[in-house]
Amino acid sequence: MSIPKILDDSELILFVVAELENVNIKRPFYASNMYRQFIPAEMQKSEMQNSGPRDKKRATSSTTLLDLLTEKGDFSLGVRTYFIQLLGITDKSLIALLTCCQTMLTYEGTVWQAPATWSCSDHVETLLEAMANSPRWKDWIDTSKVTALTLDGCSKITDTSVLVIASKCSNLHTLNLERCSKITDASVRVVARQCSKLHTLNLAHCSRITDASVLEVASKCSKLHTLNLAHCSRITDASVMEVARQCSNLHTLNLEWCSNITDASVSEVAQQCPNLHTLNLGYCSRITDASVLVIASECSNLQSLNLEWCYNITDASVLAVARRCSNLQSLDLSQCPNITDASVMEVASANLQSLFLAGCSNITDASVMEVASGCSNLQSLDLGFCDKITDASVLAVAQKCSNLQSLDLRFSDNITDDSVLAVAQKCSNLHTLNLEHCSNITDVCFAALRQSYPNLQLEDY
User: Fold this and answer.
1) What's the CA gap between 433 and 406, in Å, rounded?
2) pLDDT reading at 51 higher than 70
3) Which are the contacts of 77, defined by CB distance < 8 A and separation ≥ 6?
4) In terms of Cα–Cα distance, which of 219, 208, 215, 268 is closest to 244?
5) N-term to C-term CA, the chain
6) 10 Å Cβ neighbour count for 461?
7) What is the tally of structural domains in the chain?
8) Is 457 among the domain residues?
9) What is the pTM for the complete model shown?
10) In a domain, 299, yes or no
11) Which of 46, 108, 197, 369 has the largest count of CB atoms under 10 Å?
12) 259: closest CA among 315, 207, 294, 295?
């Protein structure tokens, strides 16, 4: 087979396919050398030296291809991914090429060293599946140096693959399994037992997870610093209270959309975890002032608090948070209908960077103007659906919050072109402006914004 000196990615793929289609599994191991990153150099050299005359003759085109793949520059991620897919575990005939050759059958060393930070971009999903299904692959891949593993969105990951992680990654301190919807308590419990150094665990959107595995994590991973259980709808107070008691160094806790959570567990977290830095209780509709008052009392280091759609919250608890949590940088009170100017004016003294008040229909210009004066470092402000807001407060924001990057004014019928253009002119870092359903903003204003600020992400429908 004659290979041109210069090939683009698509032509190269065609040559690779043509070469692979004629490969016999008894052929020397050089036939799979496009997967070179997983093959020890000494093994390649030994195999080529031991090839007979007939093998060397047949090696001509493969050797040329090998040179092309390994010595003629870098290839795109798409091409490299394609090579791995061609020789991956899903193709039985090609995996046979790797596992059936005599060299690999007898090789007992490490074929590839996984990086300390291992993520989806490193084909981790494919390799974990290979390790789960083949003892040889489990031995060939060395994961002893892996400390952080990210599998976010790897939909094929199952308990079997996670069990491999537990058995092979003893130094793991960060594990991200977000949106790995097939995993269950069975594998997470084993991870907890065997990865006691775990510092960060992300189980967001793992809908099969229950209290059983979180209780195991609490019991075995006392050094836990960050726990994300967002959208784990089966979680209850029982496991969260145990996390609070066993993991006193907890720094970040995300319970968004954990609808079974009540004041009982949140109060326990506040009392047992004094170093809490970030707490997300968004959409936990059972939360009331009772637990938020405990948070204000016990968590003076709190920097970020999300109470979105906690519609039982009132000014009483927000006032307490504003007065006691002096390091607060981000506060989300979206869709908390009982919040009024009284608490928001108090919040202004916290010098926030992010404030979300969408749907707080009692808010008026008075508190927003106070926020503008007190929060000069404000970067994100959401006033969507705050129908009492007028140009007066938006102009104040434009004049005093020069670092503003994102402003949401959806459904603000009292806002006009004047204040919107002022924000765009004075807030040079602004990159997002939401003016959806602002009935008094004219087409002239929208045209001016698009022309003068082409990089501004403008929502206007």
Assistant:
1) 6
2) no
3) 121
4) 268
5) 58
6) 6
7) 2
8) yes
9) 0.81
10) no
11) 369
12) 207
Q: How far apart are alpha carbons 325 and 300 in whole angstroms? A: 5
pLDDT digits (tens, 9 = 90+) for 273-300: 999 999 999 999 999 999 999 999 999 9
Using the 3D structure, point to which of 82, 106, 130 is the last residue of a domain: 106
Query: Which residue range forms the structural domain that includes residue 404?
Result: 329-461
Distances (CA, A) of 437 to 293, 360, 361, 391, 420: 36, 17, 16, 16, 14
- The helix/strand/coil state of 113 is strand
Task: Show the CA angle centred on residue 255, arms to residues 277 and 122, nearest 5°.
Answer: 85
How deeply is 105 buried, as exposed, middle or buried, from its count of CB atoms within 10 A (0-12, 13-18, 19+)? exposed
Name the residue with higher pLDDT: 61 or 240: 240
431 three-state secondary structure: coil
How far is CA 165 from each of CA 130, 150, 347, 434, rounded to the nearest angstrom? 12, 11, 45, 43
Per-residue DSSP letter, 458: E
Amino acid identity, position 362: N
Give the torsion sign (CA, 257, 263, 265, 267): positive
Give the tokens for residue 12: 């190269």
Q: Within a 13 Å sphere around the CA of 197, how many CA atoms are in the beta-carbon half?
A: 10
Q: Is 220 in contact with 245 (CB distance < 8 Å)?
A: no
Question: In 259-412, where do the E strands start and end?
Answer: 278-280, 304-306, 330-332, 354-356, 380-382, 406-408
pLDDT tens column, 84-133: 454 443 444 334 444 444 454 566 777 778 889 998 766 788 788 878 88
The pLDDT tens digits for 155-205 are 889 999 999 999 999 999 999 999 999 999 999 999 999 999 999 999 999
Residue 128's H or E segment, with its range, is: helix 124-133
φ, ψ for residue 252, nearest 5 deg: -135, 130
Reduced to 3 states, what is the DSSP secondary structure of residue 386?
A: coil
Per-residue pLDDT at 107: 62
The string of DSSP codes covering 411-430 is T-TT--HHHHHHHHHH-TT-
Pick from 240, 328, 231, 331: which is nearest to 283 by CA?
231
How many separate helices (H) and strands (E) can be counted in the chain? 20, 16
- What's 398's domain CATH number? 3.80.10.10
In a domain, 410, yes or no: yes
From residue 95, alpha-carbon distances to 19, 20, 60, 105, 435 in Å are 15, 12, 22, 13, 55
Residue 114 · residue 146 · CB < 8 Å? yes
